[in-house]
């Protein structure tokens, strides 16, 4: 019988498991879609749904609980301001798991866990935008240098 087994251990100590969960929650909130192994995604899904439900409650206690669980004020603010408004009419099921084949090295089952109705621009949060004005200035300078060199 399986009495008293609350969740998966994922072959980690309790502290490592808590840190893993916190980091994955922060990444999921920031990018709104992450790729991980299937057992980790199944472990993350109920916790993410609970975090968003907690963010929908508009009181000081829920805000403190969010900051306590996420350990990141930016993520907590995004849950309170953006995600809670997006899922106001929805009563649960804020995340979905999509199976994504197997990993090359060890054949572990991969999955994509994402927020339902996610913002497609959230995945590009950290990517730097190219400044075209600087690039064109450099290209023009190189062309002028080549012209001068060929003229001599």
Instruction: Give the CATH level 1 class.
Output: Alpha Beta
What oligomeric arrangement do these chains adopt? single chain
| CATH fold label | 50s Ribosomal Protein L17, Chain: A
CATH architecture type: Alpha-Beta Complex
Q: What's the number of structural domains?
A: 1
Spatial gap, N to C terminus: 88 Å
Percent helix range:
40-55%
Secondary structure tally: strands: 3
Q: How many separate helices?
A: 5
The main sheet comes to: 3 strands, antiparallel
Strand line-up in the sheet with most strands? 1-3-2
Corresponding CATH superfamily: Ribosomal protein L17
The ordered H/E elements are HEHHHEEH
Mean pLDDT: 89
Please state the overall shape, judged from the principal axes of the Cα atoms.
Answer: elongated
Low-confidence residue ranges:
none
Report the structural category. Answer: alpha+beta
Query: Strand portion, in percent?
Result: 5-15%
| Rg (C-alpha, Å) | 22 Å
Descriptive report:
This protein is α+β, with helices and mostly antiparallel strands. The chain is 54% helix and 13% strand. The chain has helices at 14-31, 38-56, 60-70, 73-86, 132-151, and strands at 33-37, 95-102, 109-115. A three-stranded antiparallel beta sheet has the order 1-3-2. A hairpin with a 6-residue loop joins strand 2 (95-102) and strand 3. The N and C termini lie far apart (88 Å).
Q: Could you write a compact summary of the structure shown?
A:
With 152 residues, this protein is α+β, with helices and mostly antiparallel strands.
Helix-strand layout with pairing:
Blueprint: H1 14-31, E1 33-37, H2 38-56, H3 60-70, H4 73-86, E2 95-102, E3 109-115, H5 132-151
